[in-house]
Fold this sequence. Notes:
By secondary structure, the protein is of the alpha/beta class. The chain is 38% helix and 19% strand. The strands form 4 sheets. Strands 4-12-11-10-7-5-6 form a 7-stranded mixed β-sheet, with helices on both faces. The protein has a 4-stranded mixed β-sheet with strand order 1-2-3-15. A 4-stranded antiparallel β-sheet has the order 13-14-17-16.
Amino acid sequence: xxxxxxxxxxxxxxxxxxxxxxxxxxxxxxxxxxxxxxxxxxxxxxxxxxxxxxxxxxxxxxxxxxxxxxxxxxxxxxxxxxxxxxxxxxxxxxxxxxxxxxxxxxxxxxxxxxxxxxxxxxxxxxxxxxxxxxxxxxxxxxxxxxxxxxxxxxxxxxxxxxxxxxxxxxxxxxxxxxxxxxxxxxxxxxxxxxxxxxxxxxxxxxxxxxxxxxxxxxxxxxxxxxxxxxxxxxxxxxxxxxxxxxxxxxxxxxxxxxxxxxxxxxxxxxxxxxxxxxxxxxxxxxxxxxxxxxxxxxxxxxxxxxxxxxxxxxxxxxxxxxxxxxxxxxxxxxxxxxxxxxxxxxxxxxxxxxxxxxxxxxxxxxxxxxxxxxxxxxxxxxxxxx
Length: 386
Ligand SMILES: Cc1ncc(COP(=O)(O)O)c(C=O)c1O
């Protein structure tokens, strides 16, 4: 049976897949099972930050694979400890809990905030999140997600979340006055919500308000993290310091990993037996992540910003493009044509792009060669104007 038929028969149909089966890749190039080649500007939704089959990452992962593939969290393990050290040194956070996905990283962030509210704020446990946010698909992270469309059919969700208008500090303040709150959770660029950045003014105002009210700031850096926005973590673009940072996607370079970084105010808030994950901190995923993190240096980040500027300059004001939004290499393009039509036409011309709400979304590899980027952007421009 063809892979497509097998998948349609046996895999739960929760994904509206493109009619495309990818089988291999090299850097920013991927091939389908019919031998067609594409320039990939989606990177598996911001996961393959250094492209496909990256030699250094493969070497790091396979070296660890030859030593020990899994230990369980009953024992100490070097890649896990070293990765936690690096994450803390690079962010100023104090401790890390490892899991396997973005939703799980957020679950841990939420548990830590709840425990803080319970023990330090006299039982205030409501968390403010933003409208149009996306925090995951578990019942609790769905509750955190400020989009009703994802809630439908899965009620009742976990209690204790209220949703404020993005970039509206007065709305956050209103909700904080009306509810017993312990935290505010946000993405500095709302990815699934349509690649919509929060403003510096809002984020800095939010930080000041959170300090005044003893609310924790939780940055969901699942999509914005690990170099994607031109800084190691997206919040670093805005001069704010969150108390909890969750991340996943690009950290693993293609292997599943989630990380919840806990700052000073929540250091030691989670103690033995309070949280856990069989695969969390897995040596192979951690070894891959260590390699990825070590390569997100100033030169790489400058390259991300340079590529971002190129895309913005090329696409802003061009025929058929209504607007360009985002930060770094997380870019949303509002097109005159239907986004689905643009995505399909790009694919026909050998370029893979994805969607975010009604926009075309670009999440290229952080190190995509300029030549590939130029070719791909030329295709997008051509497709948008036709
Ligand atoms: C900001 C954000 N948070 C959380 C998630 C959920 O991550 P995962 O699919 O790894 O559970 C996503 C996924 O797109 C995301 O973009």
